[in-house]
Amino acid sequence: MVTIKDVAALAGVSTSTASRAMHNNKVISDETKQLVFNAMKELGYEPNYAARNLANKTSNTIGVILPVAGPEIFQNPFFMEIIRGINQECNQRQYMVTIASGDTNEELADNVATMVKRGRIQNFILLYSKVNDPVVTYLHDQKIGYTVVGKPVDYENETPYVDNDNILAAKDATEYLIQAGHQNICFVYNNEEQLVSLDRFTGYRRAIRSADLANEYQYQAPVDTSPTDVETFGSWLSEHPEVTGFVTSDDIVGLMVQQTINQTADIPRKVVSFNNSLFSQMSSPAFSSIDIHAKQLGIEAVSLMMKYIDNKNSLVSKIIVPHRLIVRD
């Protein structure tokens, strides 16, 4: 049976150095880490994480917390892309990933508490940010480490986070429509609790007011869109024939808007959305979307979290991932 001593001997380092390299300790150089990882691969060595976790009363698992939603959230490519980035970075750092989800705030908070108490998970990545979140309250009160994808609502100065400049991104999307000649533009969203929706509305509003346009329009779609939502939005649209441009909070909402527009083809209208997912690319016609680089958000979230795992005294910091407007005419 291959042991850590065999790995150390093949890599030409001491056993303690090999152990530190496997744990991605920052005092070990990248060159030495690579030597150890190559030796592990050649010998087929797999660290016994269960034994290490039992001894340390900790876990090498990162908990990833999804927003409250039904099973349809696993069909949302935005979250799948973030998780793909998280998995990729965690694999490189010899960490595992487990998912926490729930249909209600209470269920989600209970699931997270169970992961802490039974799974000994001490580090989490939240894939959302919203007001009055019991999960954040629990993690903060229990002094559990967490990083947020999105700007924190509470404890911002204490919380490391990764985000886009959603205000600027929405402003860019709205200004693109204005420059294309649209004078009446509506912001369509589906979750007012999410801080990201509030930021994107702020960006939309800034662009409208900066251009001295007379009207602002808002439409709140249901959180879980369905065929009946197209009919309902179609009724709203028939009451507002002057609206020809739409900034939507994400591609799923954008698809609902585009499907409605397709039924009123007599009036030229245009959609700009967020996430640049398959929903915007495969729609007929395809519509423009802001690429917020979801996979990179996941990678950066893990990198930021590891900084605090390695050094609990690190200053709290944030990472802003740039966005890009993908134009589809």
From TrEMBL:
Example GO molecular function: transcription cis-regulatory region binding
Family matches, as SMART domains: HTH_LACI
Name by which UniProt lists this protein: LacI family transcriptional regulator
Keyword annotations of the record: DNA-binding, Transcription, Transcription regulation
Source organism per UniProt: Brochothrix thermosphacta (Microbacterium thermosphactum)
Pfam families: LacI, Peripla_BP_1
Domain HTH lacI-type: residue ranges: 2-56
Keyword presence, Membrane: no
Gene3D superfamilies, sorted: 3.40.50.2300, lambda repressor-like DNA-binding domains
UniProt xrefs under InterPro entries: HTH_LacI (IPR000843), Lambda_DNA-bd_dom_sf (IPR010982), Peripla_BP/Lac1_sug-bd_dom (IPR001761), Peripla_BP_I (IPR028082)
TM regions (residue ranges): none
